[in-house]
Amino acid sequence: MAEVTDIPMDNEVEVDEQEYDTDKIRLLPGSSDDGTASSFQIIDEDHTLGNALRYIIMKNPEVEFCGYSIPHPSENKLNIRIQTYGNITALEALHQGMDNLSELCTHIEETFTEKVEAGGYATEEP
């Protein structure tokens, strides 16, 4: 059986001002030689991240396919497969997808907070 390998980068990677813990993401066997098709494994994540990340990555016009699976319900692992048309690598598509999802979540949080404050709602802790 093929071994799972770490993505060949420093322990903390900065891409577009976002930092990622590469101990959490691993490159799975079966990547294409040119890097346009790769599978990754994300540790301690589930369908919540998988479906959102798949959706955001598929919005990229350079991505041909993106799918994810949970290998087993009792394992906290998320496998994601990305194939691109060749102008960017699968790793670049993954980074862009994570950046875009992070920006979207930040925007949602900021908009929600603004609306709560503008509406005069109380945000007291119990």
Automatic annotation (TrEMBL):
InterPro entries reported in the protein's UniProt record: RBP11-like, RBP11-like_dimer, RNA_pol_Rpb11_13-16kDa_CS, RNAP_AC19, Rpo11-like
Major location category of this protein: nucleus
Compartment(s): Nucleus
Limits of the DNA-directed RNA polymerase RBP11-like dimerisation domain: 38-110
Alphabetical GO biological process terms: termination of RNA polymerase I transcription; termination of RNA polymerase III transcription; transcription elongation by RNA polymerase I; transcription initiation at RNA polymerase I promoter; transcription initiation at RNA polymerase III promoter; tRNA transcription by RNA polymerase III
Cellular-component GO terms for this entry: nuclear DNA-directed RNA polymerase complex; RNA polymerase I complex; RNA polymerase III complex
Pfam families xrefs: RNA_pol_L_2
Protein name as it appears in the record: DNA-directed RNA polymerase RBP11-like dimerisation domain-containing protein
Organism: Candidozyma auris
